[in-house]
Amino acid sequence: MIDAPDGVRVTARDKEVGVRILVVSDIHANWAALSAIDEPHDLCLCLGDLVDYGPDPLPCVRWAMRHADHSIRGNHDHGVAQGIEVGGGHGYRYLTGLTRQRHWSELGVDERRYLLRLPLTQRLTAHGKRYLLVHGTPRDPLDEYLMRDPETWARRVAGIEADIVCVGHSHMQFNLVADGVVVLNPGSVGQPRDGDPRAAYAVIEDGRILLKRVEYPIEEVVARTEASDLPEQAKRLYAEGLRLGRLPQAAGPPQGRTV
Prior knowledge:
This is Phosphodiesterase. It holds the Pfam family Metallophos_2. It comes from Tautonia plasticadhaerens. The chain is α/β, with parallel strands linked by helices. Helix content is 30%, strand content 19%. The chain contains 8 helices and 10 strands. A 5-stranded mixed β-sheet has the order 3-2-1-9-10, with no helix packed on it. Strands 4-5-6-8-7 form a 5-stranded mixed β-sheet, covered by helices on one side. A hairpin with a 2-residue loop joins strand 7 (174-178) and strand 8 (181-185). The longest helix has 16 residues, at 91-106. 45% of the residues are buried.
């Protein structure tokens, strides 16, 4: 298991590139899911959205500060770091609006600074491959919501100087080739939306991409949320999403831009 980080801030490390890469995204303050990942690796890539929704923002941000060699900003990281208020009484906008200020308050100065300083994109080279990391798409790194659509992805990666584009945001796990570029979405660690409630992530080993899942104690996360002072409607919405591994019907379908 991954050890829970202590209170000492450790920045992302500059290490020699290894041959086994752990890729995680969309953790959303779900420490139980994140800590269930037990994968040896030489390099860790984090594709954003450490916060909002879940009960444990602090250990998740501290984990990224210590373990992620390359991290980028997700739209929820941006919203919490910038104190962007979210209106609306429906679905996940409603849940975001309730948890955002709480998460800002629960983070310390170092964790807030970490979120504020996360870049929108990062580039690196590993095992002879050029990587581009974005949360949404290369056209709109924060907000564009694109599913497994090779034709649209081909337009988004046209002219991109990269062999592998790693993305998150949609909470949908996939690996496809578009216009000669590999597009990898490891899925969501903390809140999958593809019908499989297990934590999703990816491992790249010697250039081979492995899409992986791991079970974690969902009911423990639900119990922690039930013990909070969130409104009952929010508790039900969050618990149903975790148990189903998808957006509850009440939350509505994903739109082009999300919060």
